[in-house]
């Protein structure tokens, strides 16, 4: 019975199919001008309709399968290949590692600064092993990206954590804010910090002390000082612990404000005194950095801030009785008064004490001291005279008062403190001699960074002979010059001969030159308007296949403008002396500069376009694996090895002579050859 029904249905389908084909054939011939339709013909192979790919089963026992006959694609689908690979290449059980082992792999890459390889552990290795990462793995990677300022990748990993439904901990937020703080793009870092803070508020997450410190660091370094100070007020309102680290991050925020930072730093410093928080060595180093980089701002507001600091230091609890012993104690009758009268008398007493002490502070003789808990202005006449770093250091009482305050706080200075002081002391031999004497007295060990700053300081005041003399101190301290030493020495290469001599020293010391050293030489050549000197530097850059950086191109651009102006002046005065020599050298220089620009691929480009080519994105280095041939540090102790430090007891501080004494004819061997210690 079933076979009869199936055959009947089959005959009906075939009949309908033939009828439709006849109708299509009739319509086709009619459109071509024929009035009589011939017998139905099967469609040609190249003609396709909706039934051309259908076939029916010829078995009388089956209804028929209308299955489409689709040609196989020429290129296989990528998703199908991935699925096939996933199903066939099942990892062996021994290939999978434990959570701890994957974490150790990530840590090892991060310790050796292999960011790309550390990311590949989660993004490639664990995916191939078919192991789901946990939040500990993501926290390690976010922390590693945060330390190098790779904020974009850190937030991408944070989003992946949420996609994997992993728990976001307080350490995750701390690392993300650290990524915003260290980001090379301040605007982007501030934007991400605001977004992250909004997410924390939406989720109802209450930050802890570490989160608040990271937020203060992020907002402070990104230039948002107001928000950084508001976060400290939130910590006080929530009764969270505020320690030295919190104030250190506030001092970092002050450094970011170059115009008003020193004034803010004074307020932060004395807020520490009022809260009975003792500053550490890092606090003093940050304060000295504020002295170097930041200004006082407008004088009227600064004067008000200083008076506020003086007033608050006077009425500080527990100090009034120590500072003003001349005030008599209240009588017995006064003690028996009511509480209102007693409070009124105490307010009057505090006002008298404050006014008297404030007058004494303002009329204090001697050097100003705004560093100690009992600050005073000393014999300062006008704040308008405070313009240089050494003037701001004088407001703190000078370097001797800084050391005295460190002793009072129970903190010992280190070589970084001395290096920061070297940047802010007066640029004279007497001040440098005094500082070296302090180093010997404190028995501190110096590193090469201190002597590099000393060379730079003397070079910036055009004392190039004194800068070369520092090399003898380096040799006496049993230290070796590094690449920075040659860079600051290049600042004093005024002629081609001096530049060649320094390059020869570097070659003998097996130190490869870089674009920063050649840029310092180029700066001197442009300042001296020495075309042959500048041309030789360009040839060295071409020969050594170095890529010019932004300062290098800016020096060339500025030098070109100066030469064009001088060329126009000679054209206006054809008989002016030196015209022919300048024209000849200038034309030769322009030809060689054009050839150099063409070789570098900068020909015909404006300065902004050229800078866009040579400027490297700071995150590109994290997108490529580490170069082949890089030898990893096998000894864990060498990874955290500090710079070599030695005592300077062999340095003869008394032999340091002022440049004025040299000009007066005092004994100074001008013929001695400058040699580097190897």
Automatic annotation (TrEMBL):
Disordered: annotated span: 626-647, 659-678
GO terms of molecular function: tRNA binding
InterPro entries referenced in this protein's UniProt entry, alphabetically: PPR_rpt, PROP1-like_PPR_dom, TPR-like_helical_dom_sf
Domain (PROP1-like PPR): residue spans on this chain: 132-308
Gene Ontology CC entries for this record: mitochondrial matrix
PPR repeats: from-to residues: 134-168, 208-242
GO process terms (BP): tRNA 3'-end processing
Biased composition (Basic residues): 636-647
Protein name in UniProt: PROP1-like PPR domain-containing protein
Family matches, as NCBIfam families: PPR
Biased composition regions of type Basic and acidic residues, renumbered to the chain: 660-678
Record's keyword terms, sorted: Repeat
